[in-house]
Amino acid sequence: MAEQRNSNTLGLLLRELLKEHSLSMRKFSELTGIDTATISRIINGKRNATPQHLEKFANCLDVPLINLFEAAGYAIEQRQEESDSDIHTSVDAIQSLLKSSNVYDDEFSVSHVEQKLESYGLYAQTEEGKNTIHKDFDEKIKSVGSIGPFISKLKELYEKFSLGKGTLFELTVIGSTLLYFIIPVDVIPDYLFPIGYLDDAIAVQLTTKTLIKKIT
């Protein structure tokens, strides 16, 4: 069970973020789907935020999930590999969330995501794979109904794929990520909402890192 810090670090951070985004408590409630009373109690330190709350807050406020986990007092192991720090900390956050959610028993790993991406990369080169992306991407975005860097990056990748902007390698990598997002059978099943899309966020991170390495 995660423990809240003695000082209301999360509450202070949320107040600051709401102010930065010019969001009222009521509007924040509408965007996250969490009732105003619950948000108020979390901000005032009268209730612990669940991992599901934090995931919705992170998407809405365009802030790394890891920041909210740390502010809420979740014990997250930091790894020191500088080049991979963003992915490592995200994996640590996912592991903590899965452990506390009690709805997913398997061990999560980046290698599982990479294996899926590799197989989807081959599919993305086929006409069937391309048609699946063009036909189902917008509908999947609507079904998720989330905002934030994860979704914004996916839309950016989709635009590049649709316009054919990139080499065959780049379009294959991008296509694999779009298929990973669209097809519900991935490392963490999408029906385990809201945690079902955390591995999709990792897939986006891996793709972004691969594309940057290719450029440099």
Task: Characterise this structure.
The chain is mainly α and 216 residues long. The protein folds into 2 domains: 9-101, lambda repressor-like DNA-binding domains (434 Repressor (Amino-terminal Domain)); 110-215, no CATH class. It contains 11 helices and no strands. The chain is elongated and about 55 Å long. Mean pLDDT is 78; it is low at 1-7 and 76-85. It holds the Pfam family DUF1232. Residues 14-68 form the HTH cro/C1-type domain. Keywords: DNA-binding, Membrane, Transmembrane, Transmembrane helix. InterPro entries: Cro/C1-type_HTH (IPR001387), DUF1232 (IPR010652), Lambda_DNA-bd_dom_sf (IPR010982).
Question: Spans of 5+ residues with little confidence (pLDDT < 50)?
Answer: 1-7, 76-85
Return Rg in Å. Answer: 18 Å
Assign the structural class, choosing from mainly alpha, mainly beta, alpha/beta, alpha+beta, or little secondary structure.
mainly alpha
- End-to-end distance: 43 Å
From the spread of the alpha carbons, the general shape counts as elongated
* H and E string: HHHHHHHHHHH
Proportion of residues in extended strands: under 5%
Give the tally of β-strands.
Answer: 0
Query: How would you state the average pLDDT, rounded?
Result: 78
User: Structurally, how many domains make up the residues?
Assistant: 2
Number of helices: 11
Largest sheet: none
The percent range for helix content is: 55-70%
Organism: Lysinibacillus xylanilyticus
Protein name: DNA-binding protein
Main location: membrane
Domain HTH cro/C1-type: 14-68
